[in-house]
UniProtKB/TrEMBL annotation:
Pfam families tied to this protein: Transposase_23
Protein name: Transposase Tnp1/En/Spm-like domain-containing protein
Transposase Tnp1/En/Spm-like domain mapped to chain residues: 14-67
Domain of life: Eukaryota
InterPro entries reported for this sequence: Transposase_23
Amino acid sequence: MTGKKVKLLDLENEQVAEGIVMSIDPKKIIMGRPIGHVYCEVSINYTNKPDALLFVKDDHRFRIKDAIGSHILWIRDYVLVDEAK
């Protein structure tokens, strides 16, 4: 999955953003916590729902629009590999 272009989905399975999976290493620390087996590290390239809430928030990032151009944690079950890209 690392290096793949993906679509990020919210809890209603609606697309909120597009990005690239940077890591699934469970020991790597992102946003102050290990990726573990639930999350993956994603670089956000585009958002179609800028006010969608992040699953994991920090002092500077609360919504998807705050995370454009940065790396965040996203729940793996809500990451869809973009086969069209």
